[in-house]
């Protein structure tokens, strides 16, 4: 096996990704491996937009959200000519192996590079959606939950002061992870999830009955993959005749300084990804099994993920 001399790193964006880039660079430096950062995700890989990342280049970024490398959606990567351009960039820059830090889309493209183009690639799961299969925690998910929770706590101040109902829409694409965690941590009365059906009449009945007994405010978390907060708020207002407002938290959840949890996860995953490449592994995604670093096939990681809903939902309803 030839010695790894140069690693490329490419990212999506969410909190903790800069901490992961830093850990890739410094782990690689420890073995005298050069690191090349790919600017603007797969777009930069296709267009040859790269830059050298030395130890100094990643100073002071551990606490910063987003990605210093910038990122972009590269739908053209689905086509073979774009993939071949990406391979050319890898070869032209003498990149021996690539670390891809991102969610499902990025990891799917990583698998294409590894499987169809024989480029050594290791994936590092990083997405606020936390929907990478076989991975308990992706980088960025913990920060997103905490950002959403902070907003929800603030909304509760108004909800209780004005005796209102709030419907709060959170991100997560087709996964209810953020909604479920925020609902339990924030003491929401209800949560609507892609993984679960709901009955708006039953929800409104609960609200009306609670209101008759003197309950004055409700917060209902809605996963964006299930419904639009505005639609739900309109229905609730109509059926209960109570003042209802909607809030869409949106991209605020993808930014911010990473939590300690995400920084630690980023350091561990990124360091392990470098070790995997050094050992000649490819087409794999790093993960944790019982808090021990491990890797799974990228083909497994990009399958759809089932999250545990029943127990969390039971607790949310029990504790309201
Ligand atoms: O996958 C991360 C995510 O933030 C999702 O939660 C959300 O649905 C989507 O990306 C938003 O995408 P964009 O930034 O392209 O609008």
Gist?
The chain contains eleven helices and eleven strands.
What report would you give on this structure?
Helices cover 42% and strands 18% of the residues. It has 320 residues and is an alpha/beta fold. The strands form two sheets. It has a seven-stranded mixed β-sheet with strand order 3-2-1-4-5-10-11, sandwiched between helices. Strands 7-8-6-9 form a four-stranded parallel β-sheet, with helices on both faces. Helix 4 links the parallel strand 4 and strand 5. It is elongated, with a radius of gyration of 22 Å. It starts with 5 loop residues before the first strand and ends with a helix. The model has no long low-confidence stretch (mean pLDDT 97). The structure holds 6-O-phosphono-beta-D-fructofuranose. 6-O-phosphono-beta-D-fructofuranose binds next to loops.
